[in-house]
Recover the amino acids of this structure.
């Protein structure tokens, strides 16, 4: 049975958001906009429930909220009412580098706001390490494990698919990360704490809450249901509708972030590779896995949009500082092109055949290049499942790790790389 909220059609949601002035204001910087709204609410005396959500007691007062200070999304400074009275000149609180009296007790809250990307444990580890090492300071006061609390604010589907946590459990409960406790808060709980009725800015807050409700349905109903279909590519009809309100970029970025996680869950511990990369290009997903050969060659699998590619390029440690490259003549060398095309098409055909997908004729493949990146491609079917794609990637990487599959190519082209 579908949830009650799913009875609201995507078309209705789009129509309502088009009429919502707060949503229009948010389009300039979607994630930053939410951070700014939260900062404003925390500084307001009319929304104590928001403060309590982040552990600030009734007898405590927010002194200031800093955005993007030392690369932190939000840094809240708070203390007791008594401390606020003792500070005196309130304007000094606007400068985080100013120095207050040394006998004033301050407390801090770090909020990492993730609305349009999947959080990674590695990033939270970096923040934890900096906190442990006294790298964060406000008013000449070091933030420590004792005077600071840390939160991750994100939609539920984003928290659920956070990367890097044991057993791929995501981040739906508090976690100790390098000795620092991080607590998740989802946007729905945040929205439910906003008090708009009889607020001086009642209509703004009501529009903001309506906006959060609509976006919650898009992400935690439509996006979730689309993802549950386990297809590689997002729902084309939903993308078409979301382009009307410029929200498709968040939808697709989250989609591909979660898709990356699912692909890796399916094969990462079963095949060997040295490097991986994930990103977005022109609002489509980009995945890449590379294998190093004797610091001379890199071979691998790359997926960009609906193109499945097997590629080869010169080995590098820190591109573009390394000057290794193919000699200029290889691009006009028919034998070189033939060898690359034959090698790549065989890998692709075998990988697809092992996943029970018919191979293509060899003459349907072409040698392609982008600078020193040489590749062969095949298009993926629009209804390709994640499980099927994971099987194909796994098969291809296993073959690329097979010396018998790579030896001929390695011997043939490694000599055609300039090394300075």
């Amino acid at each position: 049975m579908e949830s009650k909220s799913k009875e609201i059609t995507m078309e209705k949601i789009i129509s309502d958001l088009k009429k919502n002035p707060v949503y229009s204001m948010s389009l300039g910087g979607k994630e930053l906009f939410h951070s700014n709204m939260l900062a404003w609410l925390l500084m307001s005396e009319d929304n104590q429930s928001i403060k309590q959500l982040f552990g600030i007691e009734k007898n405590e007062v927010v002194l200031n909220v800093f955005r993007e200070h030392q690369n932190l999304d939000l840094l809240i400074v708070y203390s007791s009412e008594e401390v606020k009275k003792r500070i005196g000149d309130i304007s000094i609180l606007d400068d985080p580098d100013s120095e207050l009296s040394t006998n004033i007790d301050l407390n801090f809250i770090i909020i990492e706001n993730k609305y349009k990307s999947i959080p990674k444990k590695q990033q939270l580890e970096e923040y934890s390490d900096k906190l442990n090492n006294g790298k964060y300071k406000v008013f000449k006061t070091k933030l420590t494990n004792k005077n600071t609390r840390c939160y991750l604010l994100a939609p539920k589907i984003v928290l659920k698919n956070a990367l890097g946590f044991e057993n791929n459990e995501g981040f739906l409960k508090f976690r100790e990360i390098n000795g620092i406790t991080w607590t998740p808060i989802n946007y729905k709980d945040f929205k439910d704490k906003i008090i708009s009725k009889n607020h001086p800015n009642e209509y703004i807050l009501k529009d903001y809450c309506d906006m959060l409700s609509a976006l919650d349905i898009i992400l935690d109903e439509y996006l979730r249901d689309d993802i549950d279909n386990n297809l590689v590519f997002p729902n084309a009809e939903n993308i078409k509708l979301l382009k009307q309100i410029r929200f498709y970029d968040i939808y697709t970025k989250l989609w591909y972030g979660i898709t990356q996680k699912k692909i890796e869950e399916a094969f990462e511990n079963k095949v060997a590779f040295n490097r991986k990369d994930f990103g977005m290009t022109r609002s489509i997903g980009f995945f890449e896995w590379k294998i190093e050969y004797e610091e001379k060659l890199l071979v691998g699998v790359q997926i960009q949009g609906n193109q499945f590619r097997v590629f080869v390029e010169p080995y590098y440690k820190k591109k573009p500082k390394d000057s290794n490259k193919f000699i200029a003549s290889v691009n006009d060398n028919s034998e070189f092109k033939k060898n690359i095309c034959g090698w790549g098409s065989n890998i692709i055909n075998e990988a697809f055949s092992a996943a029970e997908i018919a191979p293509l004729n060899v003459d349907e493949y072409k040698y392609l290049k982008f600078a020193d990146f040489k590749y062969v491609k095949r298009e993926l079917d629009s209804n390709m499942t994640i499980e099927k794609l994971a099987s194909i990637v796994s098969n291809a990487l296993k073959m690329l790790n097979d010396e018998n599959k790579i030896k001929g190519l390695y011997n043939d082209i490694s000599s055609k790389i300039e090394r300075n």
The longest strand covers residues 60-69. The longest helix spans residues 202-228. The mean pLDDT is 85.
